[in-house]
Specification:
- By secondary structure, this protein is α+β, with helices and mostly antiparallel strands.
- It has helices spanning about 45-50, 95-110, 110-120, 125-130, 140-145, 150-155, 175-180, 215-220; strands spanning about 5-10, 20-25, 35-40, 45, 60-65, 70-80, 170, 185, 190, 205, 210-215, 230-235, 250, 265-270, 270-280, 285-290, 300-305, 310-320.
- It folds into three domains: about 30-85, no CATH class; about 95-155, Orthogonal Bundle (434 Repressor (Amino-terminal Domain)), CATH 1.10.260; about 175-320, Umud Fragment, subunit A (Ribbon).
- The strands form four sheets. Strands 4, 12, 13, 14, 15, 16, 17 and 18 form an eight-stranded antiparallel beta sheet that branches.
- Strand 15 (about 270-280) and strand 16 (about 285-290) form a beta hairpin.
- Helix 3 (about 110-120) crosses helix 4 and helix 3 packs across helix 5.
- The chain starts with 6 loop residues before the first strand and ends with a strand.
- InterPro entries: Cro/C1-type_HTH, Lambda_DNA-bd_dom_sf, LexA-like, LexA/Signal_pep-like_sf, Peptidase_S24_S26A/B/C.
Length: about 325
């Protein structure tokens, strides 16, 4: 990381499917840089880039600079409900303590007996609570803890079903100190530009510029080799809904000699940088496809084998980091 001032890493745990988002404002002095960990909902794996959504998620560290008056953190409260997903909890017909206990227990996959054992009461006590025979219970806190839900929500139905769990703030003086922890990898920016003449390199990795940090655990799970990976920003809407304008993508530039059908690649064709889904065509050609369903605006491009000299594959997109 270049620049002056101290560097602070602010970590915030997220869980999937946030329905409730609130803003927290943390002052950040001018000249400081903060590494902000964004949650799992922001990392969409290469499987997500395919035709099927997947649940491979990870953490990413976003650098935020002190030129802004405030550091804005998005804190997500997780949605752990199923049939009521994308609805406010209060609107899910859980207007009694018993219904809320039943709902949370079923989501947890517990029987009344199993919940009773965790709470330290009889199964009959849990049955009475769920059936409304006990309008209230002195075991409320123990039941909430056993179910992993908010005691306030369980008692009144107000607020979120689960509570945000905050991890302690971790502070590093500089990027090297953060890297030495072994918990993070740093990916440089991939710069792609038109070239002059056949065979000329059309891209380079900016090792001296701003680098983005990711958790090493996530990188290993995604089989991302830091020696072969870099980031770049998506421009335009041709790959919506899977890639949005402004998304930061991770590109494996070692995967540029063999095309895997249906995967997303960064390529240069006719001196234009594109992020597209590629398919091999009969006879050695290539089908270059946008994910955007509007084919009047984003039609397929069919490249014949004799035209492949005009196409240069930079690398395969293996992950995308988007906003909430």
């Amino acid at each position: 990381m270049t620049g002056t001032g101290s560097h602070t890493a602010v970590t915030q745990s997220h869980q999937a499917h946030a329905d409730f988002v609130r803003n927290a404002h943390t002052p950040l002095a001018h000249g400081q840089t903060a590494y902000v960990r964004r949650g799992a909902t922001d990392i969409r794996s290469d499987l997500f880039l395919g035709h099927t959504r997947a649940d491979n998620r990870g953490d990413k560290i976003f650098p935020v600079h002190g030129r802004d008056s405030n550091l804005h953190l998005l804190i997500s409260q997780p949605d752990s409900i199923s049939q009521c997903r994308s609805q406010v909890y209060n609107n899910c017909s859980m207007d009694t303590l018993g219904k809320r206990v039943t709902h949370a227990r079923e989501l947890k996959g517990l029987t009344q007996l199993e919940l009773a054992k965790r709470v330290g009461v009889s199964a009959q006590t849990i049955n009475f609570v769920e059936n409304g025979r006990n309008k209230g219970t002195k075991h409320l806190l123990a039941i909430a803890k056993a179910l992993g839900v908010s005691a306030t929500w369980l008692d009144s139905g107000k607020g979120s079903m689960t509570e945000v769990s905050l991890r302690p703030i971790e502070v590093w003086e500089d990027e090297e100190q953060l890297a030495q922890s072994g918990e993070y990898i740093f990916l440089p920016e991939l710069s792609v530009r038109p070239s002059a003449g056949p065979g000329a390199q059309v891209w380079h990795v900016d090792t001296a510029g701003q680098r983005q940090a990711f958790t090493a655990k996530w990188a290993r799970r995604m089989s991302i080799d830091p020696a072969c990976a870099a980031t770049m920003v998506v421009s335009g809407d041709s790959m919506e809904p899977r890639l949005l304008d402004g998304d930061s993508i991770v590109v494996d530039y070692c995967q540029n000699d063999t095309i895997i059908d249906g995967k997303v690649y960064v390529l240069v064709i006719n001196d234009e940088v594109k992020v597209k889904r590629l398919f091999k065509a009969i006879g050695g050609g290539l089908i270059i496809r946008s994910d955007n369903p509007d084919k009047n605006t984003h039609p397929d491009l069919n490249v014949r084998a004799e035209e492949m000299m005009h196409v240069r594959i930079v690398g395969r997109v293996v992950a995308v980091c988007g906003g909430i």
